[in-house]
Design brief:
The protein has 118 residues and is mainly β. The protein has one domain (6-115): Rieske Iron-sulfur Protein (3-layer Sandwich), CATH 2.102.10.10. It is 0% helix and 43% strand. The protein has no helices and nine strands. It has strands at 6-10, 21-27, 30-39, 42-47, 71-73, 80-82, 88-90, 100-106, 109-115. The strands form two sheets. Strands 1-9-8-4-3-2 form a six-stranded antiparallel beta sheet, with no helix packed on it. Strands 5-6-7 form a three-stranded antiparallel beta sheet, with no helix packed on it. The chain is globular, with a radius of gyration of 13 Å. Bound molecules: FE2/S2 (inorganic) cluster. FE2/S2 (inorganic) cluster is lined by residues 50, 52-53, 55, 74, 76-79, 91-92.
Length: 118
């Protein structure tokens, strides 16, 4: 395990386009909610903070995918984000993406490695 890595969960805890696993990270010196999902076989993590208003995305804990299991959707005003990049695809997020996390999966485990713009 490299310096700064943190074990988040076992790989089988994340089902394809299933429930997100929530955890906390430190962002600019403050605890911030984050989540990781599995999509298209990979693992993707983001701060759990909509780029429209700093609200958590989940409509119920860990439920961040749209009904088709294709995109992430904010439960407050319906901003839509690409699950594999955090890019805003529609709704009130405009051009602002989610803050993405560096995640790694190996040996059946999922690790948090850092925040991409933090
Ligand atoms: S807070 Fe997410 S769309 Fe408005």
């Amino acid at each position: 395990m490299a310096d700064g890595e943190r074990l988040i969960c076992t790989a089988d805890a994340l089902l394809e386009a299933g429930k997100a696993l929530r955890f906390e990270v430190e962002y600019f010196g403050q605890a911030a909610p984050a989540f990781v999902v599995r999509f298209d076989g990979g693992v993707y993590g983001y701060l759990n903070r909509c780029s429209h208003v700093a609200m958590e995305l989940d409509w119920r804990e860990g439920e961040v995918f749209d009904a088709e299991g294709r995109d992430l959707i904010c439960s407050t005003h319906g901003a839509i984000y690409a699950a594999d990049s955090g890019k805003c695809l529609g709704g009130p997020c405009g051009k602002t993406p989610l803050v993405s996390l560096r995640m790694a999966e190996r040996d059946g485990k999922v690790y948090f490695e850092g925040i991409n713009d933090g």
